[in-house]
Structures are given as structure tokens and as C-alpha cells.
Amino acid sequence: MYKIETHLHTAESSPCAKLSAAEMIELYHKAGYKTVIVTDHFIQKYLDGYDSECWQNAVDRFFLGYRNAKEKGDEIGVNVILSAEIHLSTVPGDYLVYGITPEILYNYPDICKVTHEEFYKIMHENGVLVVQAHPRRDGGTYSDYSCIDGFEIYNSSPRHENYTDLAEAQAKEHNLYMTAGSDAHRLEDYALSGMLSDKEIKTVDDFVELVKSGKGQLIR
Predict the structure, then answer these.
(1) The pTM is what?
(2) Ranges of the chain with pLDDT below 70
């Protein structure tokens, strides 16, 4: 079985992360993970800090963590896949977007400010799978089930209560896809969760197919 990390942050692109992209990939390689999906925080205040004058420059700067991770992964044999964790200013919650690309984001400079319905429509028009990250974290309850494809039902971050049983029950009730991830920011976070596949996951399309098939095993 091939191990996949579905939720990871780098110090280059997520100010709350404490390890560089290269450090993260080295750690995951040693832990036996074959694929790592980089999901840095895509938040308006961070983007304004990168370049408040030019949206394309801000987007390019945001993906520095991914680029560094990809370089290290190519060097040591880890598949590194691009994603993001987008925070909307209009609704509570954070959304893992599997299939996002810089080119998609270039076209939507107000993506963090749109409504949940508009966000979901944009993502689906561009073939992106939308998974609500840690949907019940610390007692949170907001979800518009018509505007998401899945729940990250298991998140192993040691600094939060994620109410896994509730998230899993609601995902099943609403026929949502289910994922699990480490939400790695620090040394104590890495390689605590993720997913297993009986075939190697090399691309985001491979991962989306795995999630939709229901054949991916959750690492808890």
C-alpha cells in the first residue's frame, strides 16, 4: 500500500508553519510516504502581504512552498502534488481544493471574498474537488452540504479537538467523500495521518479518482 499525505503546510507559504518544504519532504520520505499533497493556507491577508499591488505576483509567491517541495521530492523520489487550503472571508470554514492551479487563481483575484455558492461554482467549473477541512474542529458546526464534495473526517492535529465521529457520521449522512490528513505544520504533526492506496498516486487526478472511488483507506 502507498502512503499519501493529503494536508500539509510549508514555512515558505504558510506563516503558521515551522518547517520548510524541503524539511517536510525529507521527513515524509523517511516515514515511508510516497506522495505528499501541499495545501498551504490561501488567505487574503497572507496574499496581501506577498504583493498587494499585483494579484498574479501574489499567487506565484504563494506557491513557493509547493515549488520547493516539488524540487526536493523529485530529488529523493516523493511525488509532490499541488493543492491549497482556501479560507473564505464570507463564511466560516476552510476548504481543501484538489485540482487547483495558479492559472485558475489568476482569473479570480477576489476568490477569497466570494460567497460559498460562487466559490463552489468556480471550483466545479474548473474541475476542482472541494473538501471541507476539519469541519467540526473545536465544536464548529457550519457546513453548506450543497457547496462541498467531501469532509476531511479525520485530522490528526494535536492542538485541536476535531470531533472525528461526528464528522464521519455527517459525511455518511450527506453522501460526502471522506479524507484524512495530518494537517502538518510542525515537527510533532507530521506523518500522523493520511490515506493509503493500492496503487501509486502520482497526479492530482489519481488522487481525486482514489477519493471518489471510496477505495482509499484512511490512516487514523
Answers:
(1) 0.96
(2) none
CA distance 48 to 38: 21
For residue 196, which amino acid is it? L
* DSSP E strand stretches across the chain: 2-8, 33-38, 41-42, 79-82, 85-87, 94-98, 129-132, 150-155, 177-181, 194-197, 217-219
For the chain, the residue count is 220
Residue 204 CB coordination number (10 Å): 19
Give φ, ψ of 117 to 5 degrees. Answer: -65, -45
pLDDT digits (tens, 9 = 90+) for 89-138: 999 999 999 999 999 999 999 999 999 999 999 999 999 999 999 999 98
- Cβ within 8 Å of residue 51, ≥6 positions away: 57, 58, 61
